[in-house]
Design a protein that fits this description.
310 residues; alpha/beta; Rossmann fold; Arc Repressor Mutant, subunit A; 2 domains; six-stranded mixed β-sheet; two-stranded antiparallel sheet; 10 strands; 44% helix; 13% strand; globular; disordered C terminus; transcription; INH-QAR; HTH_AraC; Class_I_gatase-like
Length: 310
Amino acid sequence: MTRVVFLLVPGLHLLDLSGPAQVYSSAADLGLGYELRYVGEHADVPSAQGVMLRAEPELPSLCPADLVLVPGWRSPRLAGTGVLTDATLAWLREHHAAGGTVASVCSGADVLGRAGLLDGRRCTTHHELQDELERRYPHASVVRDVLYVVDDRVVTSAGIASGIDLALHLVTTRHGPTAAAAIARTMVVYARRNGGEHQASVLLRHRSHVNEAVHRIQDIIETRMTDRLSLAELARLSGCSERTVTRLFTRATGMTPLRYQQALRVERAEHLIGHGTTVESAARMVGFEDARMLRRLRSRPGYASATPRS
């Protein structure tokens, strides 16, 4: 039985807590072997939304398989907020040193920083807190505007709903994408958002299936979105025949691997164009040889977006 221990800080955001808690509660319902615990320095913990929570006031002994997760709290700034004792910070530090995993949502990254767990590691937090986190922990490498970052069993995520993405990623790492997809369906959310994505609507629309082979192919395409990927190479990398790749992928996603890659490229290009990049530059940045193909795809049904055409 793996324990997921939530460290409750006064003023915590309910969704920072309830999102990951629901993921692991659903995982337990599926028989994946999780026990949820809620601990804090005080038995009564007020939330930012006014709901009073109850916590175990004694910190448990942990084993390396256990996860400690720190939800964020209402924090226009980090300095002077989320105060915890040195004993609690040492408990976090010792758990990681013994081989355990620690994670945070939003401002919870500051707790990991105070425990010394961000030094020399990549991390992230809510976009409104990134500058302050960087100033407070100059030996950390703050990755901006991503959903979550994993570095040597220290897992940090952005604000609020990204805690769900973090938890689903950890479930995927331990149990595979099929388990994560089943949990996401139970929660009525899409199965996966990759940590490095800002907003991945194409990925989300086509990740709600449970075919692990197709998930692997999608991982390849997403990682190498700008490369020329032949069907033969996808087949080799995924360990399937070309015919099987096409059949499984189309059945699971409703599109061919090439169309999926094009949709990802167009979506990324739309984002770049919406932030001031020219169509020509955006086309080259996402892997098109020139802007003609991008313009053609942007005009087709199924590739359209709300971004004004240029």
